[in-house]
Design goal:
Layout lengths: L4 E3 L5 H7 L4 E4 L2 E8 L11 H18 L7 E9 L1 H9 L3 H4 L6 E7 L7 E8 L7
Parallel strand pairs: 4-5
Antiparallel strand pairs: 1-2, 2-3, 3-6, 4-6
GO molecular function: deaminase activity
Pfam families: Ribonuc_L-PSP (PF01042)
Protein name: Enamine deaminase RidA, house cleaning of reactive enamine intermediates, YjgF/YER057c/UK114 family
Length: about 130
Amino acid sequence: MSKRDVVFPPGRQALYERNRYSPAIRSNGFLFVSGQVGSTEDGSPEPDLETQVRLAFNNLNAILGSAGCTFDDVIDITVFIVDPQETFETIWKVVPEFWGNAPHPTLTAVGVTWLYGFEFEIKVIAKLPETIKS
């Protein structure tokens, strides 16, 4: 197996090492980003849902930026939402701040019962810009 081309955002490598996963992997012109949550710097959940969603997007954008991408390069999104019937509207009013203009990426939304203390998680696949080798 070839060595994984891991992307680490600034200042959070210890969090990923402690939890034993890579924040993102570059492969064949794509960036595969692990699920991002609204964690504070120590990895704990942000208690306010709107702030938690913004932090998840900020954490995602830090990884995208470390790989030379922006949210405009995202082609596929999966979101995981605890209790979507109760939280969807609160979450979805934050989304336009980060989503950008149409055409939008593909989206799969999954309702879950547990996210390790979080209420929202977002994972994406992005197309690396042509100038970036993978």
